[in-house]
Design goal:
mainly alpha, 83% helix
Length: 132
């Protein structure tokens, strides 16, 4: 389980995937790729192996993004402490300016949630460093 997430949050994410048809698309795409590979003479097991690798790399990259975000937050907290305009400083203006009003609201809320998790992690790490 990912650190900081509750079972309820995992359930919400799973429900969202079901409603959006994520798994139907996933299986359909996988089936199409296996079919094309078979026509080209590639073993279906190799396609599944590759597709699993691609999905796992996407998950790994997402975790790398979270680590990069945490390091940005950590730098701000180390240099200036908790500040009132942290969300504004962490906002990617190039992305933000292209969004609709509703998308901007969602982006800001997501960024805020990520920031709060990063601050909690920072505080936890800081308190553990004083114990040693």
């Amino acid at each position: 389980m990912e650190e900081g997430k509750t079972l309820k949050q995992y359930a919400k994410e799973a429900k969202k995937r079901l409603k959006s048809g994520f798994w139907q698309d996933y299986l359909k795409n996988l089936g199409e790729k296996i079919e094309k590979a078979s026509e080209a003479g590639v073993a279906p097991s190799k396609v599944k192996e590759y597709y699993t690798y691609v999905v796992s790399e996407n998950i790994k990259n997402r975790k790398d993004d979270e680590e990069e975000f945490y390091l940005k937050v950590k730098k701000i907290l180390d240099e200036e402490g908790e500040i009132s305009d942290a969300i504004g400083r962490l906002t990617d203006r190039k992305v933000f300016d292209t969004l609709s009003y509703n998308e901007k609201q969602k982006y800001t809320l997501t960024l805020s949630e990520r920031y709060l998790k990063a601050v909690a992690r920072y505080n936890e790490e800081k308190s553990l460093s004083f114990v040693n």
